[in-house]
Amino acid sequence: MTAPTQDLVRLGLREAGDAVGARRVSSRALVDAALARIEATDAKVGAFLAVTPERARAAADAADARAAAGARRSPIDGVPLALKDIFLTKGVPTTAGSRILEGYLPPYDATVVERLEAAGAVVVGKLNMDEFAMGSSNENSAYKPCHNPWDLSRTPGGSSGGSAAAVAARQVPGALGTDTGGSIREPAAFCGVVGVKPTYGRVSRYGVIAFASSLDQVGPLARSVGDAAVLLRTVAGHDPRDMTSSTRPVDDYLATLEGGAKGLRVGVPREWLEGGGVDPGVAGAVRSALDAYERLGARLVEISLPHSKYGIGAYYLIAPAEASSNLARYDGVRFGLRAKDARGLKEMYSESRERGFGPEPKRRIMLGTYALSAGYYDAYYLRAQKVRTLIRRDFDAAFERCDVIAGPVTPSVAFRLGERTDDPLKMYLADIFTITCNLAALPGLSVPCGLEAGSGLPVGLQLLGRPFDEATLFRAARALERELPALPAPPGV
Amino acid sequence: MAVADFQTVIGLEVHAQLLTRTKIFCGCSTAFGGEPNTHVCPVCLGLPGVLPSLNRRVVEMAVRTGLALGCAVRPKSVWARKNYFYPDLPKGYQISQYELPICEGGEVPLTLDGVERTVRLVRIHMEEDAGKNVHDVSADGSSGVDLNRAGVPLLEIVSQPDLRSADEAVEYLKSLRAIVMALGVNDGNMQEGSLRCDANVSVMRRGASEYGTRCEIKNMNSFRFLRQAIEYEVRRQVELVESGGRVEQETRLFDPDRGETRSMRSKEEAHDYRYFPEPDLPPVIVEPALVERLRAELPELPRARAARYQSALGLSAYDAGNLVADAAVAGFFDAALAAYGEGAEAAKKVANWLTGEVARLANETGEAAASWKLTPQKLAAVLRLVDAGTIGGPGAKQVVEEVFRTGAEPEAVVKAKGLAQVSDAGALEAAVDKILAANPAEVEKHRSGKKDLTGFFVGQVMKETKGKANPAVVNALLRKKLGA
Ligand SMILES: [Zn+2]
Asked: Which domain holds residue B439?
């Protein structure tokens, strides 16, 4: 029971869980190792906004007692995990990366937090993120930047940047994030880990701070496909408190995980690789992943998604519109930051919001308010919803000819911190390949597919599936994971 | 001023709180009152991360109301967010329905001056109520927000501008109130705000083809205030037009203390609510089977009930109308009649008590029929005591009052208060003799045939016996003694 810290933090989610179950390692040792790793590396990485050592150690001891009593709650009972700071945790500060919620202590746990705890997982802290999940580089965090463990001068991606960085840096074997337009898959690709955006409705959003309600979805990040699958299965499933959550049973992803890619029809969107502005190094890695699929007996099918090109436009109307409404409750009246010196109600509202929100939420509130205004609604919001329908139809047609769709996650590898902060439009384009998946409510996954030749930075392959067919995504990703050489440990930490 | 030269045009938007046990999107109690912010949870407080979870009873009550009013029920209706900032609105938006409400069309029947007509409805939609701002809660004059009411389910029932006078508007609201109470979806309590309305009022010169500019009047929580507000507003608008001015479209608030409406916000200051479909709630699907079940379960509605009271029981239109205005009272009437007897005479007696003495007591105590201590069985017992001659009219009145206040058994009240009627001629003869002896002039007048003073003598005897004398026996004694 006295393995050195560096060995314990290398364990994957299932490995760690199995070790606790076999009583080779205690949960307490795993948690102490994770806390020590965070202590040692997070000054450089900046993945955590809050660490909760006392709570984590108490939970670990309880998990060890269960293991000793032969009463484990699940295969991941006692395994340390961390949560994007968008999940409400009872009595533990939850900020959504925003000053407006600085010091906010939620009175209840998100459904996914309850489910993790019911499975015995040990939450060690809350992870850095773009403010209200608005961003693609984690640079919109109101608290501190987060750094990519592969190259500390680069962004880990966003908005679940802290989640991807913490998993890549071996601080925790798994984390939860949220994905509204690519916020799990893009950072997963940038940090060389597996990230999953499940089908809309697969995971409860209750207790998840809302950004864009019709697009937000909770998903796992982990260092292997199987670990991500286990984590998703732990939190997925119907929740009566979220009426948009599906009542469909959750598939047993592990049962089909090793099924291979033989006979799989892999759709390759014509629009994504040719002339899509994808960096050659990224395109090369994606190409070699597609070649690997062919070697594994899959068949590549060219497909077309003609309306994808309207995705960014539609997304940046719908998401800000919903956000402008979701963020109205941060008014200084009941919780969060209040401008106490303001005179009168209106000044209190505007001063609280002026001081509490950073530039990106303000920009999106403005955009969204405009898009919903009388006289503009039809031209903007309604038209964007029509585009959304067209994009969904594109996918319906494509999935008649293929089982999964494969392509790049992002046009480039992780960019440098500060490189795009002055150009929101360029920043928005980082989501060009991930956004349609949210608009069409499909499941999507990012799996590492090698390193970019020049930079040595990870490249992610994106796989999209039919609604609620996460099982096929996991199987396809696992086949590739087995075929390709494993990534080395990130050199930055 | 020539109000008569103008036609008044009114449309009402009625908000009816639904009688669900819990709120529309969470499990909190809908009970009125309670210490501020005690019937709240993260959902109705609008805390970060919460999501609404629909109370299906709300949908059923909306459909029931729609069916009773002859609306078309939409198989698929959609929730929408109505966005505006106000401290009593926790989320910064109200979950309501906008483009696709649950019910459309339909009508409300009303009778005015004996003429029956209908008022067309535009729509009925479901929404959540807001909280309440409470001012000057502390010494520094700061305000508080009570969110107990936030999330209480409401129906908004919108009429066409079919109403042509304050009287008609009041009758419309009375009729609608009786219907929602009969359906069991609303308690009709206007004072507590569980039924309230806004009025859109405009005036047009008689013969004109276009409506005038309308003003929306808010905050009328009684029939009297609705009438006052409309009458004031009509006068104001007519005066304005007559003096060459123009009515500006605006929202006005009724001030019950001064009986006036005053400007609350102009058209320019009107909110842009930025409605859009609520992404946190799927559309409301109403299956045909549910519609059929609810249709089959519809109770007898006030108008039909009043008609039946007239045709089958011979009640006057006035009595019938009074009884059915409150379904609980009508239910009481039915039960009391069943416990008492049959036929028009029995019905008339029960109705008289209910619309007379019992209504007076209910009005005085403010107690709703559902919680009366006087039960239909006890009222029937009182009537039987009268029929048996055990008590007389004045005694019965006292018994009813006592039973109403305490719930005691009528026989016990008769005994305890010594209200039993004296019917023994021997016992009453002394009293009759005393009265005749004390009023020789009247006796003379009566005997001479100048004037029939029987009534006067009976009254005096009743006074003498503290109302306990059986009037029939007294009458017989008087006839004998006065030889008339
Ligand atoms: Zn509540």
From this structure: 425-482
Over residues A425-473, the pLDDT tens digits come to: 777 878 889 999 999 999 999 999 999 988 999 999 999 999 999 999 9
What residue in A sits closest to B277 (Cα-Cα)?
Answer: A322
**Tens digit of each residue's pLDDT (9 = 90 or more) over A3-49:** 677 799 999 999 999 999 999 999 999 999 999 999 999 999 999 99
B173 and B72 part of one domain: yes
- Select the residue of B45, B85, B280 nearest A213 (Cβ to Cβ): B280
Whether B30 contacts B21, CB under 8 Å: yes
Last residue of a domain, one of B370, B398, B417: B417
How many other C-beta atoms can be found within 10 angstroms of the C-beta atom of residue A269? 24
Tell me the pLDDT of chain B averaged across its residues. 93
How many domains does chain B fold into? 3
**Does residue A224 sit in helix, strand or coil?**
coil
* pTM confidence score: 0.91
Q: Cα separations (Å) of A354 from A335, A351, A363?
A: 16, 5, 12
- Are B342 and B263 members of one domain? no
Domain-located, residue A21: yes
B429 lies in some domain = yes
- Run of H or E residues at A387: helix A383-398
Q: Are residues B383 and B435 in the same domain?
A: no
User: Does B369 lie in the same domain as B471?
Assistant: no
Instruction: Give the range of the structural domain holding residue A70, as residue numbers without chain letter.
Output: 5-257
Same domain, yes or no: B273 and B366: no
Per the domain annotation, does A58 fall within a domain? yes
B51 close contact with A: CB closer than 8 A: yes
Whichever domain contains B452, its CATH number is: 1.10.10.410
Give yes or no: residues B322 and B276 share one domain: no
How many pairs of residues across A and B have Cβ atoms under 8 Å apart? 99
Structural domain contains residue B82: yes
Of B45, B272, B282, the CB nearest to A244: B282
**Closest Cα partner for B397 from B436, B352, B434?**
B352
Lowest mean per-residue pLDDT among A191-195, A294-298, B464-468 = B464-468
Which residues neighbour B241 within 8 Å (Cβ) at sequence distance 6 or greater?
Answer: B6, B203, B205, B212, B247
Burial call A10-48: b when 16+ CB within 10 Å, e when fewer = bbbbbbbbbbbbeeebbbbbbbbbbbebbeebbeebbbb
Token pair in block for residue A360 = 């990106």
List chain B residues with CB under 8 Å of A345: 87
State the total domains in chain A: 1
ipTM over 0.85? The verdict is: yes
Residue of B nearest to A242 (CA): B51
pLDDT in tens, A72-118: 999 999 999 999 999 999 999 999 999 999 999 999 999 999 999 99
Is residue A137 annotated as a catalytic residue, yes or no? no
> Is residue B386 within 8 Å of B454, Cβ to Cβ?
no
